[in-house]
């Protein structure tokens, strides 16, 4: 079988190739499709955020502080630092009686292209609330405040906040914590190293869970795609194109996880060399092949056609002239069911 990969063309030639590993599972963790090495151990990065946000609902933090759906969505986000994202983060901090200087995350270039240009043009000095992870970090502060745990050091491994979040990751992935590699993420807090198959299992379970906390958080995410990423971002535009039928969450270094609740499936992909531009292309290719294989009662294939700029982006030279394309090639392999 021709293995799934991402090709970068220039003129008539393939100039570069990025290998892809993927795992597609059902809620029992049964592998139904794969590419490369579905057991590849890598870091989940920001694709873990929903499972770091669930304790806010499960532990009563939402009721205690009267958190809004917007604030819960932002806790799951890798946002673009747009005004709406910063406004929701500021309100979230105020509700839990915390300040921006208590956020352990630091600022970085915005993930939204227009916002990044604005920052450069206007020479804006960014603060921690601009971090794409400011919602997640505010959620961690809220958890600490609710349980009367120290706010200082909330981001570090061994702090009660991180122990509680690790319990959530352990439960949804089905992986004992002894098998989860914990280290420091780019936003200063803990990130998790685990097999793609375990990541996909968590998303499959989340997509179909009838537990009140998971079902509510899933509904909030699906209802607030603009807060999960932002303008001209694939996570947002995929959910807008196919509302209520898919949730996808990007992670750094070529990682993506997603759930298609109507099919009872979760999936995780890793572009093995970490190429960020290839990750979304790989995600869309896997989703497309799943719909072809397992059926498309909700019209997902037609909706994916509207995302062509993400599925096969054009490469341009410095004069804006097209020179090639970044495209998916090959396919996942389907296992006997």
The assigned structural class equals alpha+beta
Helix-strand topology string: EEEEHHHHHHHEEHHHHEEEHHHEEE
**How many helix segments?**
14
End-to-end separation in angstroms reads 18 Å
Question: Low-confidence parts lasting 5 or more residues at pLDDT below 50?
Answer: none
Mean pLDDT: 96
Task: Tell me how many strands there are.
Answer: 12
- Main pleated-sheet profile: 9 strands, antiparallel
Radius of gyration: 19 Å
Helix content: 40-55%
C-alpha geometry = globular
Beta percentage is: 15-25%
Tell me about this structure:
It is a single chain. This protein is α+β, with helices and mostly antiparallel strands and 337 residues long. The chain is 41% helix and 20% strand. It has 14 helices and twelve strands. It has helices at 49-58, 61-65, 69-75, 83-95, 113-122, 134-147, 160-173, 196-208, 212-223, 225-228, 234-241, 276-294, 300-304, 308-311; strands at 5-10, 13-26, 31-35, 41-43, 181-184, 190-195, 247-251, 255-260, 265-271, 314-316, 322-329, 333-334. The strands form two sheets. Strands 1, 2, 3, 7, 8, 9, 10, 11 and 12 form a nine-stranded antiparallel beta sheet that branches. It has a three-stranded antiparallel beta sheet with strand order 4-6-5. 50% of the residues are buried. The model has no long low-confidence stretch (mean pLDDT 96).
Question: Main attributes?
Answer:
337 residues, nine-stranded antiparallel beta sheet, three-stranded antiparallel beta sheet, 14 helices, 12 strands, 41% helix, 20% strand, globular
Helix-strand blueprint:
Elements: E1 5-10, E2 13-26, E3 31-35, E4 41-43, H1 49-58, H2 61-65, H3 69-75, H4 83-95, H5 113-122, H6 134-147, H7 160-173, E5 181-184, E6 190-195, H8 196-208, H9 212-223, H10 225-228, H11 234-241, E7 247-251, E8 255-260, E9 265-271, H12 276-294, H13 300-304, H14 308-311, E10 314-316, E11 322-329, E12 333-334
Antiparallel strand pairs: 1-2, 1-11, 2-3, 2-9, 3-12, 4-6, 5-6, 7-8, 8-9, 10-11
């Amino acid at each position: 079988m021709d293995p799934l990969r991402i090709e970068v063309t220039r003129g008539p030639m393939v100039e570069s190739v990025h290998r892809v590993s993927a795992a597609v599972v059902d809620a029992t963790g049964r592998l139904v499709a794969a590419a490369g090495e579905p057991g590849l151990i890598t870091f989940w990065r920001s694709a873990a955020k929903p499972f770091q946000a669930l304790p806010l609902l499960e532990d009563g933090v939402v009721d205690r502080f009267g958190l809004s759906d917007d604030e819960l969505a932002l806790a799951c986000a890798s946002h673009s630092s747009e005004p709406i994202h910063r406004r929701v983060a500021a309100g979230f901090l105020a509700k839990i009686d915390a300040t921006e200087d208590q956020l352990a995350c630091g600022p970085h270039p915005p993930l939204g292209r227009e916002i990044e240009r604005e920052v450069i043009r206007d020479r804006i000095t960014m603060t921690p609330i601009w971090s794409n992870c400011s919602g997640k970090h505010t959620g961690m502060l809220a958890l600490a405040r609710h349980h009367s745990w120290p706010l200082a050091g909330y981001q570090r491994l061994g702090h009660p906040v991180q122990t509680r979040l690790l319990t959530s990751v352990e439960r949804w992935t089905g992986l004992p914590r002894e098998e989860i590699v914990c280290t420091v993420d780019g936003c200063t807090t803990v990130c998790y190293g685990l097999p793609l198959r375990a990541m996909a299992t968590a998303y499959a379970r989340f997509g179909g869970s009838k537990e009140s906390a998971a079902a509510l958080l899933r509904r909030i995410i699906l209802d607030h795609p603009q807060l999960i990423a932002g303008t001209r971002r694939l996570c947002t535009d995929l959910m807008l194109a196919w509302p209520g039928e898919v949730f996808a969450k990007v992670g750094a270094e070529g990682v993506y996880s997603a759930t298609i609740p109507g099919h009872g499936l979760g999936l995780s992909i890793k572009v093995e060399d970490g190429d960020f531009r290839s990750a979304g292309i790989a995600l869309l290719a896997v989703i497309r092949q799943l719909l072809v294989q397992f059926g498309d009662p909700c019209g997902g294939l037609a909706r994916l056609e509207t995302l062509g700029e993400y599925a096969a982006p054009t490469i341009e030279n410095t004069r804006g002239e097209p020179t090639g394309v970044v495209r998916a090639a090959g396919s996942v392999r389907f296992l006997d069911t």
